[in-house]
């Protein structure tokens, strides 16, 4: 399985899948963003178009109204000039008729050059007088022939009105008087309300200097002079986006009513205009989030499903692989494998079973187990199956019957195999014919070897024993010869006799050593638990004379372990090794012999260390062989059998003997024995 990827896709494809899924998740976001942007554009475009239409519409109507008022003022001015002598009541009727056609007119009055009232639509009172005085002063201050003043309460009933005034002049061009008309602020507001089609919209009629005449929603009286559309350099008409005032921004369409020096503005609060767009955008974002979330959930489900499916496929593959391997192992197994059902009928047998039992392929299927193992009877089968169910596994040796009646010794392991509510017995059978044959051959060979060994040992024993007899005779007669004819022999003859006696004596020692060698283990005393302390002490005692003579220092462990062994043989072993350490001491130094013992893993390792002449490593093997010596008799006494006996004793005890040595420095012999505590 590729751990770098997601388990079944290679890493590159896995990364690509990730990118595709991420892109897929981006689709709703892209669509939503586009839609939000589109709605914003539409909202702005629509608002722009609407304010333009609105301002044009309103400008037309207001312009029309103002023209009408201007005409009434003109005509009234004309009337007063031509009918000045008429009584006031008639003048008032005149004025009423004039203003009747112009509903925009709220008040109308005419004053002379000094400000005295000549005629008035609503009578004349001191309040009218001061109203007229104020307008006259304002008109003179403004210097414009057609003066439009800031809103102020009408003297008639206090209604807030916008005053309009035009000076009358004499033929010489001097001011003859003033005709004042007024329009209620509410009139303009009503006009505004009639056409106001957009919410969050502010309609304003103001002087070009920013003085507000009327505004819907109602103004707070502040001047608009600071706004961009009222700047002196502003064009006559236009569309302004203004975000100069903190916290809000506006879209303003304005028109200038040129002859009246008035400016009409339609302003939309952008933030409020965008309110519906905003809540719509919020809804879209929420919907998008929900869709994305659902998409993620769906993707996660799908991804998990896919992973599960991939894992299932993988485990199916693994199962197929192990099944194929099991099949391969079954058909190539050297052991026979046989399955049988609840009744003991063989349902499967592998190739080895067919080959070994001599059946054609599939020839075993359908037979009863009793056909290949006559020890079973079909009637026993159900009971045997019950036993197997309880025991789990049976192991036994059987003698199978081949197709042609041949007997095949076998080792059988039967286990119960449950499958699909059924119980099958699975037998794994090992053909033991070859092993049995080999075992029999080995046993025969061992028997023969033991017999020949015993024979050899007996021969060595008898031979050495019997050889001593004629040797004793040779010795006796050489002694007789020496005693009786010694005087008659010359020096050479006496030497010959001495050589003959020495030779006979040496031969006797050799035979004695050989006898001893052949005796090791010959008594066949069984090994027992012995305390090595006794053997060590006995060896020390045997060698005490020799040790004292050489002035040797012998060091032994305080504590010896209990081992499996033969007391006498182990004493002999230690005597030989310590004796050699004394014998092969260094001529220039006091012999130091140190015995030590280590235990571990059920084994005692004993070491005998000396500071003697040492042995060259090339002789390490040779010295254990019988009659092998490294020195001549004239230097060191001996026959060369001591270490051969040591080896024989150690090996009879199931141990090992070896050495380490540095010539001229010393030798250490090691041997192992089995610890008695280990049993
Ligand atoms: P022998 O001592 O009778 O010659 P062994 O079988 O005991 O026979 O020893 C064989 C030979 O091994 C000896 O001739 C001697 O050369 C050598 N050898 C044995 N033990 C020692 C020892 N401790 N130090 C040096 N040489 C040894």
Describe the protein's architecture and organization.
It is a single chain. The protein is α+β, with helices and mostly antiparallel strands. The protein folds into 4 domains: 1-300, PAS domain (Beta-Lactamase); 333-431, Beta-Lactamase (2-Layer Sandwich), CATH 3.30.450; 437-515, Helix Hairpins (Orthogonal Bundle); 524-678, Heat Shock Protein 90. The protein contains 15 helices and 23 strands. The strands form 5 sheets. Strands 1, 2, 3, 4, 5 and 6 form a 6-stranded antiparallel beta sheet that branches. Strands 8-7-11-10-9 form a 5-stranded antiparallel beta sheet. The protein has a 5-stranded antiparallel beta sheet with strand order 13-12-16-15-14. Helix 1 (11-82) runs antiparallel to helix 2. It is elongated and about 220 Å long. Residues 1-6 have low confidence and may be disordered. It binds adenosine-5'-diphosphate. The site of adenosine-5'-diphosphate has 19 residues, from helix 14 and helix 15.
């Amino acid at each position: 399985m590729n751990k770098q990827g997601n388990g079944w896709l290679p890493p590159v494809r896995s990364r690509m899948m990730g990118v595709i899924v991420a892109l897929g998740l981006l689709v709703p976001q892209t669509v939503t963003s586009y839609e939000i942007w589109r709605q914003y554009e539409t909202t702005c475009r629509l608002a722009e178009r609407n304010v333009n239409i609105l301002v044009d519409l309103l400008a037309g109507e207001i312009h029309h109204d103002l023209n009408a008022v201007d005409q009434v003022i003109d005509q009234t001015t004309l009337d007063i000039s031509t009918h000045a002598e008429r009584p006031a009541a008639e003048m008032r009727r005149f004025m009423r008729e004039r203003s009747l056609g112009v509903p925009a007119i709220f008040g109308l009055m005419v004053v002379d050059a000094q400000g005295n009232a000549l005629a008035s639509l609503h009578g004349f009172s001191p309040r009218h007088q001061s109203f007229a005085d104020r307008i006259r002063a304002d008109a003179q201050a403004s210097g414009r022939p057609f003066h439009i003043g800031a809103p102020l309460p009408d003297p008639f009933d206090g209604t807030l009105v916008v005053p309009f005034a035009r000076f009358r002049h004499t033929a010489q061009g001097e001011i003859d008087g003033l005709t004042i008309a007024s329009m209620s602020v509410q009139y303009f507001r009503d006009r505004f309300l009639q056409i106001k089609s957009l919410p969050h919209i502010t309609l304003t009629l103001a002087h070009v200097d920013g003085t507000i005449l009327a505004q819907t929603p109602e103004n707070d009286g502040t001047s608009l002079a600071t706004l961009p559309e009222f700047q002196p350099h502003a064009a006559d008409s236009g569309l302004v986006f203004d975000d100069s005032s903190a916290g809000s921004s506006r879209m303003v369409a304005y028109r200038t009513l040129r002859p009246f020096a008035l400016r009409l503005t339609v302003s939309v609060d952008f933030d409020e205009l965008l309110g519906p767009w905003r809540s719509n955008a919020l809804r879209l974002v929420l919907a998008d989030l929900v869709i994305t979330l659902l998409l993620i959930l769906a993707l996660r489900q799908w991804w998990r499903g896919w992973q599960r499916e991939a894992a299932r496929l993988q485990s199916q593959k693994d199962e197929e692989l192990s099944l194929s391997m099991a099949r391969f192992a079954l058909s190539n197994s050297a052991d026979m494998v046989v399955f049988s059902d609840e009744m003991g009928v063989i349902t499967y047998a592998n190739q080895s079973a067919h080959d070994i039992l001599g059946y054609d392929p599939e020839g075993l299927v359908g037979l009863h187990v009793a056909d290949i193992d006559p020890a079973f009877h079909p009637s026993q089968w159900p009971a045997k199956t019950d036993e197997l169910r309880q025991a789990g596994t049976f192991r036994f040796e059987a003698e199978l019957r081949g197709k042609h009646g041949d007997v095949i010794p076998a080792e059988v392991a039967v286990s119960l195999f449950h499958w699909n509510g059924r119980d099958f017995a699975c037998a794994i059978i090992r053909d033991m014919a070859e092993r049995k044959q080999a075992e029999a051959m080995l046993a025969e060979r061992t028997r023969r070897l033991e017999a020949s060994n015993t024979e050899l040992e007996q021969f060595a024993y008898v031979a050495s024993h019997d050889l001593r007899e004629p040797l004793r005779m040779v010795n006796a007669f050489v002694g007789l010869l020496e005693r009786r004819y010694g005087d008659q022999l010359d020096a050479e003859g006496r030497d010959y006799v001495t050589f003959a006696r020495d030779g006979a004596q040496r031969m006797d020692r050799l035979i004695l050593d050989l006898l001893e060698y052949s005796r090791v283990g010959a008594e066949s005393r069984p090994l027992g638990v012995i305390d090595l302390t006794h053997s060590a002490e006995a060896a020390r005692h045997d060698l005490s004379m020799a040790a004292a003579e050489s002035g040797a220092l012998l060091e032994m462990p305080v504590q010896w372990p209990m081992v499996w062994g033969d007391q006498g043989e182990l004493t002999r072993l230690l005597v030989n090794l310590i004796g050699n350490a004394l014998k092969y001491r260094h001529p220039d130094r006091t012999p130091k012999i140190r015995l030590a013992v280590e235990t571990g893993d059920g084994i005692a390792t004993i070491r005998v260390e000396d500071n003697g002449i040492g042995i060259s490593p090339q002789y390490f093997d040779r010295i254990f062989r019988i009659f092998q010596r490294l020195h001549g008799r004239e230097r060191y006494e001996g026959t060369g059998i001591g270490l051969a006996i040591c080896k024989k004793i150690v090996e009879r005890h199931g141990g090992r003997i070896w050495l380490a040595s540095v010539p001229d420095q010393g030798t250490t012999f090691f041997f192992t024995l089995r610890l008695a505590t280990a049993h």
